Amino acid sequence: MNIIIFxxxxxxxxxxxxxxxxxxxxxxxxxxxxLRYEIKKNTEIGKKIINYMNEGKxxxxxxxxxxxKKNISDPKxxxxxxxxxxxxxxxxxxNLDILLSDTNQKIDFIFFLNVNKEIIIKRIEKRRILEKRxxxxxxxxxxxxxxxxxxxxxxxxxYSSHENYHEIDGGMKIxxxxxxxxxxxxx
Length: 187
Ligand code: AMP
What we know:
Layout: E1 3-6, H1 13-24, E2 27-30, H2 31-40, H3 44-54, H4 61-73, E3 81-84, H5 90-102, E4 109-114, H6 117-131, H7 138-152, H8 155-159, E5 165-169, H9 174-185
Parallel strand pairs: 1-3, 1-4, 2-3, 4-5
Helix pairs in contact: 1-9, 2-3, 4-5, 6-7
The structure holds adenosine monophosphate.
Adenosine monophosphate binds next to helix 2 and helix 3.
């Protein structure tokens, strides 16, 4: 079963994706984590994207699309993917459709964790202290939120007619969100 966890920065996508990874024995595909790893390893891609990431801007679709491709066609991950932070643009959503159909896969469930701006700011400020992410300062958070509203939120229109599209109140407690998702999945 392939799942997309969708929502603004700070919605708890990563937390829920990690829970599902364990529960379903699936694989979390977090483009943010993949990109941070490229930076940490100081790869050619890492050097190209570091400034975008630190400023809270999107990394180029071509780079992100190329990084997810091998995960989608990896035999051990087929039909076991949990997308966290991808797709974030309409172009990426279209690319995902192509990559999935090329490998005879589809998206089975889409969960939209809906959270308001005030909660996001509070949560990310907390995460900044815990995880020390360089893109979690207040100005960058606000920029990331604007980018989400302008560019990523419209991707929802692309998916909202999907038969297994579910909007969940992302302002609930972590375990309440987990229960809700598991109840819908029937696991
Ligand atoms: P995240 O860990 O999902 O919050 O992502 C952190 C940062 O990585 C984002 O603010 C972007 O700079 C970059 N990023 C992650 N996923 C994508 C994506 N699908 N497309 C473009 N940039 C991305």
